[in-house]
Structures are given as structure tokens and as C-alpha cells.
Amino acid sequence: MKRAFPVLAIVTAVLLSWGLYQALVVAPTEQTMGDVQRIFYYHVPSAWTAFVLFFVNLIASIIYLASRNAKADALAVAAAEVGVVFCTVVLVTGPIWARPVWGIWWTWDLRLTLTLVLWLIYVSYLMLRRFSTSGQTPLIAAVLAVFGALDVPLVYFSIWFFRTQHPQPVIGGGGSIDPRMLHALLINWLAFSCFATLVCWSRYRLEILRREIDETQALEALLEGGVSGGRR
Amino acid sequence: MSAASLTLATLAKDLRLEWRSKDAINAMLFFALLVVVIFSFSFDPTAEESRHIAGGLVWVAFLFAAVVALNQTWARELRNQVLDAYRVSPAPANALFLAKVLGNFVFVSVLEALMTPLFVVFYNLRALGPAYQLPIVAALGTWALVVNGTFFAAMSLRTRSREIMLPLLLFPISIPALVAMVEATNSILTGEYSARFWVVLLAAYDVLFTMASLFLFETVLHAE
């Protein structure tokens, strides 16, 4: 498994540079929006990656609740942290694109609001982990992840109905997409998935190592205490 | 002792404690009063348009005030290791949880009953829609806040600075419930549209999270 890591790193680097080339050079300029539309090749893959990572976090949390497997918890931390980073990228690139195209930075549209609420839930998840004391952190964090997942359909329906009551700026519209644009999007999606896997993987290994060190140090402290106590 | 009588016993104990000290209710009332007064300085409270934002104000005031009661739910049991005694006792954890939720429900409902006249006076409110729906919305909304609030308060017992932690956990998860409460209240106050969808959504929220809390509370209580 460890040998696969550098291979994945090289594949990710190649895919990311190819994706950049595709997005900036190969993909045609959009008719009405112009070059600002190219942010789309980073915005959309980031969103997909963030949602996949939040889903991984949920699955890992459920596995942890069912089996108390410490590795599942390490995966949950890694997925949540990297997911929040990707979700932040989505929330930052969105307004940069929206300002010239819609004329506004932000609108309380269904997808935007849902993404923002998910981001809030996962930031609170990370805060809980950070503030939590002693060894129950994985358990209460896993419980919060389950509550957050239950919340998502309710947020969806509440925002959906809220929007139907209040007038909205008209967004987008149909129209066909140039195959080269789709190509650039898919390449970037693949590159971002590899990148997220890579970062998650290193974060996961870091977490496992950190716990091993903590355990060793605790054990050493215990042994030393026993020895010095014996001398006295 | 059956689970129901255990729930009632714990509830009676909490209500008696609160009746004698009146700590939570006094703090909540004064806090909500301050929110009402401070909000009224930030815009013209008697203008006709403020009817459209009154629902939001009322619920934000109640939400902030409810956190005061929720925070002391379990903190009270930490003194003299009462919570540890609960853990080792064979009593079902859910009976304890339900008693705490019911207790908080009573506290927040009392707060709402006392604060509503003040809102009506200060903001010149009058329901243009069907007013009989307001107590239903209030009950469902209060349950939505206290069931998750009580659960998260138990979770935040195991964190540093838990008084800060509770709202950080509770507010993001409560967003759909808050939207539903605010919109239902606004629809009744303005009489412009039906509150039906929001009441159904609130009820769904209540059922879903009550079940989830009952399912997971024992795990959280016994987490060591």
C-alpha cells in the first residue's frame, strides 16, 4: 500500500497539470460570460469532491458507531477536514464567478444555501473535535456526523420551499455544452478526486501515527512513573 | 421502577428545583427582554413592514434564551457526581433524557408564554392569519429546539468551555427548524400564505430528531 502513495502523487500531479491546460487553453471561451466562466472547471469538481468526502465521513462515522474501529475514526477526521477545505474552495470561487455574471456576490439559492449549511455543520463537527477532552471525542463526533446527515434532507426541503415563496434572480438556463468544456470538466474532476484521495490518505496516516505516538508516550510515562515510584 | 415513573420522578425533581431557585427562568426572561429591547432600537418596530420580520425576531430571542436553560440541564447533575450515579444505576437512559427534554420544554414554553405579550406590545403585532395555529407552531418549534438542545448539551459536557460549545453545535443543525418556525409564524402574522407546509416540516423534524436522540442517547451518556 505504501508504494502506491508516490504513484498516486505522480498521477495526481500529471492530471492536475493536464486539467489546468485543458481548462485554460483547450476549452473554448464561453460566449456570454467570457473567461470568468473558466473558474467553473475548479468550482464544480471541488463541490463534487467535498460532497463525496462528507459522504465518506458519514460512512466512516457509522462504521465507528457500529464497531468502535479506531481506523474508521481516523478516516472520518481526514475526510471531514479535507472536505471542509474543498467546500471552502467552492464557497470562495462561487462568489468570484457570480459577481461579474449575476451582478451579485451571493444569492440564497437552494444549492448555495445547502452548501453553506453543510459547511457550517462540518465546521461545527471540527470545532467539537477540537474542544473535546479525553477519549470520547470519536464517539460524540460520530454521533454529530449522523445528526448532520439527518439534517440535510430537512435543510433541502426548507430552502426549496422558502425559495418558492420569495422571488429569485433568474439563474443560468439550459443550452448545450461544448464537448471540449465537458472534457476539461471531467479531467479536472478526476484530478481533484485523486488530489483529495492523496491529501486524505496522508492526513489519515498522520492521524494514525499521531495516535501511536500518544499511546507510546502515555505508556512510557506510566513505566517511568512506576520505576521512580519503586526507587522511592 | 418503570421507565414512565422514572421520567416523571426526574421531571418532578427538576421542576421542583427550578421552582425553588428560579435560576434558569429568571436568566432566560431577562435575557429575552434585553434581546427584545435591543432589536427594537435597530429598526422601526411599529412600522407595517416589521410584521414581516417579527417571526424571525421572536424566534431568535427564544432561541438565544433557550440556550441558557439548555446549558444548565446537565451541568446541574455534575455537582456531587449525580450523573455518574445515573450511569451506574440500572435506570433506562432514555427515561432520563425524556425527563430532561420535557423539563426544558416546560421552561421554554413558560418563557414564551410570558414574553409573547411583551412582543405584542412592543412591536404592535396582530395576527392577520389564523391565530389558533400559533400555539401549534410554538409547541412544535419549542420541541425542535429542546430535543436537540438537550442532546447536544449532554454531548458538550465532555468538551472544554461547554457553554460556548452548545450553540455552536445546536445552531447549524437547527437551521431547517428555524426556517420553518420563522416562516410559519410570519405566514400567520401576515396572513399572506398558508403555514401548512412549515408545520408539516417542523413535525417531521421533531419526529426524526426525537427518534435519533432516543436511539443514540444511551451511547452518549455512557461514553467513557
SSE order and pairing:
The complex is a heterodimer of chains A (232) and B (224).
Chain A: H1 4-26, H2 40-67, H3 70-102, H4 110-131, H5 137-165, H6 179-231
Chain B: H1 3-21, H2 23-42, H3 50-78, H4 82-88, H5 93-123, H6 133-156, H7 162-190, H8 196-221
Can you tag this structure with a few keywords?
heterodimer; A: mainly alpha; globular; B: 224 residues; mainly alpha; 0% strand
Describe this structure in words.
The complex is a heterodimer of chains A (232) and B (224). Chain A has 232 residues and is mostly helical. Chain A has helices spanning 4-26, 40-67, 70-102, 110-131, 137-165, 179-231. Chain A has one domain (13-24, 37-166, 178-225). In chain A, 81% of the residues lie in helices and 0% in strands. Chain B has helices at residues 3-21, 23-42, 50-78, 82-88, 93-123, 133-156, 162-190, 196-221. The two termini of chain B are 26 Å apart. Chain B has one domain. In chain B, helix 1 (3-21) crosses helix 5 (93-123), helix 3 packs parallel to helix 6 and helix 6 (133-156) packs parallel to helix 8 (196-221).
- Ends of chain B: how far apart? 26 Å
Shape of chain A: globular
Strand content of chain B: under 5%
Number of domains of chain B: 1
Mean pLDDT of chain B: 87
> How many separate helices of chain A?
6
Query: How do the SSEs of chain B run, as a string of H and E?
Result: HHHHHHHH
Q: Largest interface, and how many residues on either side?
A: A-B, 32 and 34 residues
Radius of gyration of chain B: 18 Å
- Overall outline of chain B: globular
